[in-house]
Each structure stands twice: as structure tokens, then as C-alpha cells.
Amino acid sequence: MNGADRPEAQAPAIAAIVPCRGHAGEVDACLASLERQSFGGVCEIVLVDSAADPDVARVAARHPRVRLVRSEVPLAPGLARNLGAAATSAPLLAFLDADCVAEVGWIEAAHEALLGGAEGVGGPVGDLHPWHPVAVADNMLQFCDFSDRRPPGPLAYMPSCNLAVRRDVFEALGGFPGGMTNEDVLLTRQIAKRGPERLRFAPTMRVRHQGRRSLAAFWRHQREFGRARGEYAALNSPLDARLSRFYVWLPYRALKRLAYIATRTAQWAPKMLVRFLLLLPLLVPGVVVWAFGVVEGSRRRLDARGRCPSPTARPHRGAADPAEPKPRAHRPSRP
After folding, report:
1. Cβ–Cβ contacts within 10 Å for residue 239, how many?
2. Which pLDDT tens digits describe the chain residue by residue (335 residues)?
3. Which of 81, 163, 89 is closest to 119 using CA atoms?
């Protein structure tokens, strides 16, 4: 029986929530990193198996501190995180992806920032495989805003692979939007809009992300990433949102993003500019594929509004029903 099952156990001060779907091989290292945390209080570790995967259950059984919550139906990542949040009573919620490893001090940094007045906090996202060029390029295209050399301060948004939020704020905003791939940006932008310094960057709240290690997975992810940007007009100016549906605008969008990544690298990690240049053969096609995704997402968004009919528009592949299933706690038997 773990601590979550004992009624006399002390209530958790914070919960670490890990959504997992098809990452049984990676989640073992993720859970081990959470068990190594130096936090002096009670931290509940909640693993959400959003596809009832027996391999995930077997991995969870190797970690006695982990509470496994299994969904009756497959869930999109945002809904899986919501399910994990509903399964714990902790007043503070820390979210970590299954393909990430938290460095020692991660929970402590999140806890300190949230008690210090922040409503949401995130930190650096580094490379779990720093010598794998495809994985490094994948992370650079996603997380250039979250260098470990970025100073503390306010954020405009934060990815959910390294995010902690106060429960009262999380519930007031309705949690993560369901059935979409840009749910973390949408939620954290709402937190940032609540006031200055509500969403903060904590340099000591560090995680390392695996990144995609095959070219097919890398390009597929970048296209989905761009499609979500276009579909929800996330972080776009009104002019960009209108023009992004035109393929003639694609080279501009690709070059603009590449220049932004170079600028961020020069600003916070100038020694990494050499790595940026060496990775250009991967970064350039990556941003081009991303820009194609932006066009597709923009046309889908406008098609849904009836302003840009497109015979090639495809329905969004998200959860069919945004309603969240009730959590079912599960203690896996050991193999």
C-alpha cells in the first residue's frame, strides 16, 4: 500500500502529474527522476495511463511511490493531465511529460515559486540526448524560449512538459482545453493575462526532453506543431493570422521563425550559435515543414468559420468528446 492509499498519511503539498500514452519505454526514467527529487515535503506522483497500456502498468509497478490512474478511453494529452489533476487533492500541480526527465530540485523550485506569488511557473527545457542531431534540432525548434540561461521573470506562455500551476487557478480557468495539440499555450496564456508576474520563469526548475530521434517523427511533429499554431492562431499577430492561409506567405513564416530561433540563441546562449549553424541542414527543412503546417491549420480555422472553403480541409484529430471521464485509481500488481 502506498502513501496515497493510507488515510493517516500526510496530505501532499504538491503533485507531479505525468500523462503517458505509448511511452512505456521512456516513462521509467521519468518516474525515477521524480523519485530522486530533494523536496522536503510530501509530493504525490500521479501517472495517467491514457490508453490502458499494460506495458505502462508494468513500469508503474516498479515504482512503489507512483499512483497509477487509468482512463477507460484514449485521451488527448490535455484531458489526461486534467484527469491526473482530478485524482489528487494537492493544492499545487506540477506537470511533466513522459519523455522528460526532471533534474534534482525540480519540485522544490516549482513549490517555492508558487508559494512566492506565481500562479504558474515553468523552467528550462534541455536535451536528454545532447549528441543526437535530430533530437537536438527538434528541441531547438520547440524550446528556444526556455534556455537554462534565460533570467527569471515573466513569461508569455509555457509548454506543459515543464509546468506547475496553483490548483485554484487551474480550476478557475477550466484546466487544459480538451481535444487539441496547443492546449498548454492556450492555458498558460490565460494565466499570463491575469496580471504581471502571474506566469514566471524559474531557471532552477529544469527538465530534459528526449526529442524525436528519427527524421520521419521529427518532420511529422513539426508539421503538427505548425498546424496547431495556425489552427488556434496561437501567438500570432492579427495580420499574421489573416495572411497565414496563403502558401505565398510560407517562405516569410519559415525565415521569420528561423531568425527568431537564431536571435534567442544569441541572446541567451551565444556559445551555442555554432551548434545552431551546424544544425541548419535539419533546422531549415524543419521550419519549412512547420510553415506548411501553419498554412494547413490556418485554412482549417477559417474553413470552420465559413470564410475559407477548402475541399482538402481535414477534421481535427482530437478527442471526440471533450467531457472528461471520472478518474479510476489503480494499483497495479507486480509482475
Report:
1. 8
2. 333 343 336 889 999 999 998 788 899 999 999 999 989 999 999 999 988 788 999 999 999 999 999 988 888 899 999 999 999 999 999 999 999 999 999 999 999 999 999 999 999 999 999 999 999 999 999 999 999 999 999 999 999 999 999 999 999 999 998 766 788 999 999 999 999 899 999 999 999 999 999 999 999 999 998 988 888 766 566 777 777 788 888 898 899 999 999 999 999 988 889 999 999 999 999 999 999 999 998 888 777 776 544 333 333 333 333 333 444 444 433 33
3. 163
Amino acid identity, residue 276?
F
3-212, what's its fold? Spore Coat Polysaccharide Biosynthesis Protein SpsA; Chain A (3.90.550)
Provide the edge-to-edge strand list for the sheet that holds 125-127.
100-102, 207-209, 125-127
The closest of 316, 274, 270 to 296, measured between CA atoms, is 316
Task: List residues bridging with 45 in a β-sheet.
Answer: 16, 66
- The grid coordinates listed for 16 are 507531479
CA distances (Å), origin 309, targets 73, 160, 243, 303: 33, 33, 15, 5
Look up cell 523552467; give the residue: 123
Q: Where in the chain is the domain with CATH 3.90.550.10?
A: 3-212
Asked if residue 165 lies in contact with residue 120, where contact means CB atoms within 8 angstroms, the answer is yes
Task: Give the helix ranges, DSSP H, for the chain.
Answer: 24-35, 54-61, 77-86, 106-115, 133-143, 167-172, 183-193, 215-231, 238-243, 250-268, 273-278, 280-304
Cα separation values, 37 from 1, 27, 222, Å: 21, 16, 32
pTM of the model: 0.85
CB contact at 8 A, 20 and 49: yes
